[in-house]
Design goal:
2 copies of one chain form a homodimer. With 248 residues, chain A is α+β, with helices and mostly antiparallel strands. The first copy, chain A, has 2 domains: 4-160, Jelly Rolls; 166-247, Arc Repressor Mutant, subunit A, CATH 1.10.10. Chain A contains 9 helices and 9 strands. The first copy, chain A, has helices at 4-16, 27-30, 37-46, 127-136, 138-164, 167-184, 198-205, 209-221, 237-244; strands at residues 50-53, 58-60, 68-82, 88-95, 99-100, 113-126, 191-193, 225-228, 231-234. In chain A, strands 1, 2, 3, 4, 5 and 6 form a 6-stranded antiparallel β-sheet that branches. Chain A has a 3-stranded antiparallel β-sheet with strand order 7-9-8. In chain A, helix 4 (127-136) packs across helix 5 and helix 7 crosses helix 8. Chain A is globular and about 55 Å long. Chain A starts with a helix and ends with a helix. Chains A and B meet through helix 4, helix 5 and helix 7 of A and helix 4, helix 5 and helix 7 of B. Chain B binds a DNA duplex (30 and 30 nucleotides) through residues 166-167, 197-199, 207-214, 216-217, 229-230.
DNA sequence: CGTTAACTTGACGGCCCTCAAGAGAGGTGG
DNA sequence: CCACCTCTCTTGAGGGCCGTCAAGTTAACG
């Protein structure tokens, strides 16, 4: 039957997910530095729960109880807030090695939606256990702080982008940042698939989808990038960086 | 001599600064909840260093080494990033009870400038000692996480403001937020002095100073607020909130 | 092959920026 | 005490960037 194939595929992926932190290729990104063998073993004990989130599914929703933070093993997510009038604002895009859910620690309730833009594998880390463990493992404790601090600093860059840059500068900055993030994860820095729609990208950048589309076309005419729907090729990274001028 | 008076005034303030966390009226704001007497005593031990920062002086600068976080006992600060071309972007305004410097934990270097907009009293908390102490004091540990998490969530609101709101909505949202913060600290919610210039406020909101000035005038004509230079009076808070419509 | 979602492109208008001039407040020195 | 300077704020006129509205194309999927 044709029905069986996706299920088999899923089981295969689930099998691959039976890994532990000590063997995880992402641990340099996820909890960056300084763990010894003993410490990794302790981490393994609490990150038992790994699971798949299919394209379009929520990892968590605004208002749901905060119980865990999530490390992305593979795939792509957006986080967004929804308003009374139905308007959506995308607050971030998240990929392999990123940690999501940190903004909920304060209120113990999630303050945004997290949706998979492609079928993704996540590693669920119960926060109470992580807190306990970090009490006796200074290096984990420091890493937690660093990850949160890094997120605060990154958000400040986004605020700069939204507050000071023109549309072309925003898109150039986004493409350069995305390229660097792919590159840091071992993928091509010059060619990649966008996982989000023009509308989601526009929402993130504070622009309308038509504006995003127009500027993609303009960049292509100028030979800065190649665009084929969601496939982006950076042809002149320095040219893009020049667009940023004094900013960023 | 006329010269002696400011010095005397300063000594008086310094004398007032000889307080400890256990007696500090701000501790509910600063490190919010759940400390017992023992724990407060331990906190006292590490927050020895309190000092004055005069109007216009830097508390820390971009690139300087990160050694401590700072709790504001009184006064008003802005944080900002400076660009090659001389343009400044204001990332935040900070008042009594706020904690500054958390974004530097990741890089161990400050990534923004912190400047006093009026003569202010700050409480310097060495971060290495705070980290040590939080290892043996779970409630402090939790509070640190909550403060950082709160900052992340707040930054997301600012991103929404910069990305989705029109100029009038931004200013209305800012005034309402500022009013609530003053109110939470025991000051009037309806009448307060702005500590920042129109230019600094515009930089924070992603607007030009002329636009800020024009909208203040417009709000005044409409009876929403009273404006006398930096003295702001909220006359119709509900009217301001109505301006936000579906947003925030 | 029909339907739907996503994207592209054009025309027009409004919001906000730019440029400019002037007023008011605060500080300094005579 | 007042003239003078500087910083800040206000207000006006004009223009440009980007949002709005609309129509058409492409791609994906049943």
């Amino acid at each position: 039957m044709a029905m069986t194939e996706p299920i088999l595929k899923e089981q295969n992926i689930l099998k691959q997910l039976k890994v532990v932190c000590s063997l995880c290729s992402l641990r340099e990104l996820c909890l960056p530095i300084g763990f010894g063998p003993d410490e990794l073993q302790q981490l393994d004990a609490l990150t038992g729960s790994k699971r798949l989130v299919k394209r379009g599914e929520h990892l968590y929703r605004t208002g749901s109880e905060f119980t865990a933070i999530y490390a992305i093993r593979g795939g792509f997510f957006k986080t967004s807030v929804l308003h009374d009038d139905g308007r959506e604002h995308v607050t971030g895009f998240h990929m392999m090695g990123d940690i999501m859910g940190l903004d909920a620690i304060s209120t113990e309730t999630h303050v945004c939606d997290a949706v998979a833009l492609e079928t993704s594998e996540i590693c669920e880390i119960p926060f109470d256990k992580l807190s306990e463990l970090s009490m006796v493992m200074p290096v984990l404790h420091q890493n937690l702080h660093k990850i949160m601090s890094r997120e605060i600093a990154f958000d400040h860059e986004i605020m700069l982008m939204l507050g000071k840059m023109r549309a072309e500068e925003r898109l150039a900055a986004f493409l350069i940042n995305l390229s660097q993030r792919f590159s840091a994860r071992g993928y091509s820095a010059a060619s990649f698939q966008l996982r989000m729609t023009r509308e989601e990208l526009g929402s993130y950048l504070g622009l309308k989808l038509e504006t995003v589309s127009r500027i993609f076309s303009k960049f292509q005419e100028e030979g800065l990038i190649g665009v084929q729907k969601k496939l982006i090729e950076l042809k002149d990274t320095n040219g893009l960086k020049r667009l940023l001028g004094g900013l960023a």
